Amino acid sequence: MKISKSPWILHYDGSSCNGCDIEVLASTTPRYDLERFGIINTGDPKHADVFLITGGVNYQNRDVVQQLYSQMPDPKVVVAVGICACDGGVFKDCYNIIGGVDKVIPVDVYVPGCAARPESIIDGVVKALAILDKKRERMAQGLVPDEKVWTNTIVRPGSQEKQED
Amino acid sequence: MEFSIAIFLIFFPFVAALVLYLLGNGERVYKARKVIVKGSALLIMAAAILMAVLILGRGTPYPFAEHTKAVDVLMACGEAFLMILVFYYSIRYKKIYTAVLSACGTLPILWLTFSGAAGESTAPHMQIDNLTVLMILVVGIVGGLIAVYAVGYIKDYHNHHKNYKDRSNWFLAMLFVFLGAMFGLLLSDCMDWMYFFWEITSVCSFLLIGYNYEKESIKNSFTALWMNLLGGVGFAAAILYSELSLHVFTLSELLQVDRTVAPGVMIVVSLLAFAAMTKSAQMPFNLWLLGAMVAPTPTSALLHSATMVKAGVYLLIRIAPLLSRTTAGVMVTLIGGFTFFAASLMAIATSDGKRVLAHSTVSNLGLIVACAGVGMPESVWAGTMLILFHAVSKSLMFLCVGAVENVTGSRNIEDMHGLVVKLPRLAMVMIIGICGMFLAPFGMLVAKWAALRSYIDSASVWLVLFLVFGAASTTFYWAKWLGKLLAVIHGSQATKDTTHTGEWESIYPLAGLVVAMCFLFPLISSGLIQPVLNQLFHEEVPPVIGQSDMIIMILMFVLIALLPISAVLTSKKRVGLTDQNTRSYMSGVNSGDDRHFMNSYGDPQSVYMANWYMTDLIGELKIMKPCLLISAGILVTMMLIIIGGAI
Amino acid sequence: MLYVLGFIFVILGPFLGGLLSGVDRVFSARMQRRQGPPLLQPFADYAKFMQKKAYIINGLQTFLITGHLIFVILAGWILYAGQDILLSIFSLTLSEMFLCMAAFSASAPYSNMSAQRELLQMACTEPMLLMIAIGFYLSSGSFMVTDIVAQKTPAIIHVPGFFLGFLVILVVELRKSPFDVSTSHHAHQEMVKGVTTDITGSLMGIVELSEWYEYFLMFSYVALYFVSSNPLSLLVGILMGCLVMFLMTLIDNTFPRVRWERMLSVCWATTLIFAGGNLLLLTLLKMF
Q1: How confident is the model over A73-112, as pLDDT tens digits?
Q2: Is A132 within a domain?
Q3: Domains in chain A: how many in total?
């Protein structure tokens, strides 16, 4: 059975205004019924396959995002939900914001919108599932899951110093 | 041959004690002391095993010591000496009530011996049967191993507690005195003689608890003394009544008495049961055993878990056929069942390792007492099995806790968090000990199973309920201890294990015994316990556990034994793991040791999950008093009913 | 012959158990007016876990989880091979103990707290589990399953109280709300993912597998109350098993989670009143 038949989601709220979070939760309600696709919203990174992040990354939650990502067993995909998670959105130039999620971990699917609608969130997740299957295939062949190597040039992981006050 | 071994078992420990005492203290005698203790322990073990082989081969009990006027007088002098000793201590520490209790117990017995009011007994004063042999094996083997352990332990003990005066020669001597007395107690069939040894063990326990002369230990030692002496008074009263009105001098004669002809026998039985329950620390007398935990660990392992407290249940099992379907039996089962349940609840709310062990000992003894009280072959089978398994597993647990305390300086269960990495060898042995206490294919549970069946068969609804609820709380307190041991703290390292080789020499054999007994329990059942039942009930008792069950039990055990081996084989498969992705989930950033997360200032913040103790619900402070009141109520009411009914 | 039946359980148990759990999820969804996952969703979950990488956080986890699986299988095997039912229950307890220890070994706050709660759940269920065996012993005079199913009348006639008590702890055993304090199948809960929080990949797959065995085992325990020497009773047993499972789903969707004190008092009180009362009654009947 394909791994994409049972994608479990880990939802993390970066520095979102909660608009996207509400929409993420809305998509788990009976009206949208995510479980149709076998999707379960789990709270545990160790069981999750899809990392759903809303809001941009700041200096406070950078390590959290990175550790959550590292604790998710391969294969895994990251979905950035909302424009803030994609590239920082309106907060992009704030002193505390590093930027979009892709500044600290590799992102597979970008779901823009302010706030992203449940339909587009579900669309994004379904899109991510195809990537998830691809990654699984690469792993079965003995390759690393990701096709291109992601390098973080902006902020070194784990560096503690703040860049500006 | 049997006779000489019996004499050897009683007298040799006293000789060894004398030598050890005279040897004195200090670094230079340590080697000699080690040799003497090890040699004596080996001799005692060998003698116990030889005795077992002889008696089991013989098949029938071996009675001896018929005419013993001189020895009787000698023993009376011994009793008088013990009484004077108690008088001395009670005056020195202004605890006059102990002196009174001692006099109440001893003086009537002295009068009985010297006045000859009861006439002379011609029955053999001593007897070795299968039950004796079984107990001798327990005392000999477990006792010997603990004595070996004690040599290294007591040295470390004084290294850790510089403020206590080093009286280790006296300590070791007392352990051996106790062993001698215990053998005497087991071999005696005559109640007079038994009483003498009974009192020696009480006084031994008192002296060993007060070993370090701290305020608390002295207080607790007197608690132990008065409760045991009270039991002694009960014993003396039983002797008085049985010799004067029934003309029965020995336990085996007592068993022959028909209770429809002489209803007075129930008075004797209930008084003996009372004495036995004080010795076995049943509620309301459990406080002395809890207090006794201030003593150095070998004392707790030897006297307060493996042997002395077993003297009580031994006596009860001896008279078990008389308890079957009587009011006295109901009293014993009520107290035993209640103690099993209540003590296991209190064990949940305790975090001091030794205290948990003490509660657990009380609780398990309760189960054995209840088994004896039911008085059916199956229940006695369960009771004897429990004695065996409990003695071995519990003394192992005590030795481990003692060793851990000497290495880490704490015996609190919370401080044993992550022990499997920090002290892998001790943790491993402790895990075996704990599993032996409550997990499925290990012996204790088998015995509980048989107990359960006999309780149902004897229609003791209250016992069934006590057992099922008590079993649940027992599982809870052992399992959370086990969990603490098994916790693996991320990135922790083994610490230096300073346990003496001498201590390992007793810990490893005991752990081996726990494991071996699980494999061999069908043999133990058929070879050791079945004959006991046949002798006690004078009929061929069918095997208690069926063949197919035994096969499954052993299958379970083999599976458990295979699991760690397979784990070692598969552990090499752990590839692709980094320090980051194997950290446990903490809902924040795990700083790397599972004990800290990063707070919003970027500093590590400690987070710690203690075990669950529920002190608000079932703490000692909360339920000890009501439990004592309930059990005391049961005891007094039932005693009145029995004695009133018999008169 | 009977041993073969035991091995058939070993093979079929997980399929039937997985199916039960799938049906449970579909029914749950329908009760909430959702479409719900496909029926075979549990198997998809299992397949996924087996394909994922396992980040095993310490060397003990593998063997503890394997123990969890082995002993739940053994518990079922004992039952279906017609052996001692008490041993089956012991084996089940042992298997749960292994899971608890696996959680303890993680030494992490959530795993640790859930392990403690899991132990509490065991303390809640153990009296009644033992009572189940006692009930069967009282009705058939033997602990052997072969003797229990060979009775003329089904056990439920003699021990209805035991059955009622069993239904209450079944909620705990199957980790259903209101008594799912340690782990639950629902998203968003206080204990993250309970005892399985730090279990990953194929190990989690094994835990799921064991859960199916346990599901089916519980189903079998229920059915055992209705089985007698009459072959038709087997059908009644299966029917009642399904009914009880449906009841569990209904309860799960009806009640909110309770605090542990409430769980403990409800479980112990029902055990004492229903099973204890039944026991007392049977004993008295036997005496007079």
Answers
A1: 888 999 999 999 998 888 888 888 888 898 889 999 999 9
A2: yes
A3: 1
Per the CB < 8 Å rule, is A70 touching B600? no
Angle at B153 between CA B149 and CA B157, to 5 degrees: 165
Tokens 């706030």 label which residue? A115
* Residue A111 · residue A82 · CB < 8 Å: yes
- Token couple for B578: 């980094």
Per domain, the residue ranges of chain B are 2-568+626-641
**CA nearest to A12, candidates A75, A74, A89, A71:** A71
Phi-psi region of A56 (alpha: psi -120 to 50; beta: other; left: phi over 0): beta
Domain that includes residue A116, residue range: 3-140
Domain segments of chain C as ranges: 2-287
Decide if A55 is inside a domain: yes
Interface of B with C in 426-485 (CB under 8 A): 439-441, 445, 449, 452-453, 456, 459, 461, 464-465, 467-469, 471-473, 475-476, 479-480, 482-484
pTM: 0.92
DSSP assignment of chain C equals -HHHHHHHHHHHHHHHHHHHHHHHHHHHHHHTT-----TTHHHHHHHHHHHSPP---SHHHHHHHHHHHHHHHHHHHHHHTT-BHHHHHHHHHHHHHHHHHHHHHT--HHHHHHHHHHHHHHHHHHHHHHHHHHHHHHHHS-SBHHHHHT-SS-GGGT-HHHHHHHHHHHHHHTT-TTS-SS--SSSS-TTTTGGGTT--HHHHHHHHHHHHHHHHHHHHHHHHTT--SSTHHHHHHHHHHHHHHHHHHHHHHHSPP--HHHHHHHHHHHIIIIIIHHHHHHHHHHH-
Instruction: Note whether B602 contacts A: Cβ–Cβ < 8 A.
Output: yes
Percentage of chain C lying above the pLDDT 90 cut: 61
A150 within some domain:
no
pLDDT tens digits in sequence order for chain C, 288 residues long: 678 888 999 999 999 999 999 999 999 999 988 888 999 999 999 999 998 888 888 878 888 898 999 999 999 999 999 888 988 999 999 999 999 999 998 888 888 889 999 999 999 999 999 999 999 999 988 889 999 999 889 989 999 999 999 999 999 999 888 888 888 777 666 778 888 888 888 889 999 999 999 999 999 999 999 999 988 999 999 999 999 999 999 999 999 889 889 999 999 999 999 999 999 999 898 887
Give the CA count within 13 Å in the CB-facing half-sphere of B139: 33
A136 falls within a domain: yes
Cβ atoms of B549 and C161 within 8 Å: the answer is no
Chain C, residues 120-159, CB within 8 A of chain B, namely 120, 122-124, 126-128, 130-131, 134, 137-138, 143
Considering only alpha carbons, which residue of chain C is nearest residue A37?
Answer: C37
Alpha helices in B242-376 (DSSP H): 251-256, 265-279, 287-291, 297-301, 308-318, 320-323, 327-348, 353-374
Q: How far apart are the C-alpha atoms of B416 and B401, rounded to whole Å?
A: 10
* pLDDT tens track for B393-450: 999 999 999 999 888 888 899 999 889 888 989 999 999 999 888 887 777 888 888 8
Of A45, A63, A160, the CB nearest to B585: A45
